[in-house]
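Supplementary Methods. Inverse-folding protocol.

Structures were first reduced to a discrete structure-token string of length 221. This string, shown here, constituted the complete conditioning input.
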């Protein structure tokens, strides 16, 4: 709880600093196969070069993930290299929310059109503890699990927690309003209360990787 409060305080300070130079706010949702999410973010971009065509940015993003009968599989990178090491945590109706600092890169194609990429870097996750089915070799046992926290962007399966990313196209439909279409790739992770996986080593972390189509609107202050 102390870590969560510290992160929220830093997020508020970030918004305060951003507001001095102008911010954008975005609200949207994504849908995939038996999964979905909603998200809200505040961010600031800075142009690069003489023409300011390229830009970098940072901000804070809240993402709430939900689904139906979602398979969370063995997460740690030292186990995911071989299929025989992969076990499953079946979540009938998972609910995972995250609040992360994100970074972005983009390019302005024209005054109204830009393309880019953003990804969560670090933050916290929260949500209910549920009774899920841990499955190994076709056999299932019931175990409690809750969202993994903190969230940390590393490389591939070395990542920890819940992290969102967008590959996007954004079009300015009014003076301060933009429409965004994106391919969303979302990591969500659960931790069991005990290390239910014992072979080839003890493990309590399980991850779901979701590809979705995202649509959102952003308002420029």
């Amino acid at each position: 709880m102390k870590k969560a409060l510290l992160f929220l305080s830093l997020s508020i300070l970030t918004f305060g600093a951003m507001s001095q130079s102008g911010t954008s706010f975005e609200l949207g949702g994504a849908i995939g196969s038996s999964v979905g999410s909603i998200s809200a973010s505040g961010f600031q971009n800075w142009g690069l070069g003489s023409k300011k065509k390229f830009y970098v940015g940072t901000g804070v993003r809240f993402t709430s993930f939900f689904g139906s009968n979602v398979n969370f599989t063995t997460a740690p990178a030292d186990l995911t290299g071989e299929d025989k090491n992969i076990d499953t945590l079946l979540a009938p109706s998972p609910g995972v929310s995250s609040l992360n600092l994100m970074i972005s890169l983009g390019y302005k194609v024209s005054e109204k059109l830009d393309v880019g990429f953003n990804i969560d870097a670090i933050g916290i996750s929260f949500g209910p503890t549920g009774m899920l089915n841990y499955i190994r070799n076709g056999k299932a046992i019931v175990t409690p699990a809750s969202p993994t926290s903190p969230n940390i962007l590393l490389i591939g399966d070395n990542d920890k927690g819940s992290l969102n990313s967008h590959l996007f196209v954004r079009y300015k439909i009014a003076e301060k309003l933009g429409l965004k279409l994106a391919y969303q790739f979302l990591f969500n992770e659960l931790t069991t209360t005990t290390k239910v996986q014992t072979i080839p080593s003890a493990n309590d972390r399980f991850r779901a990787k979701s590809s979705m189509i995202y649509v959102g609107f952003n308002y420029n202050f």
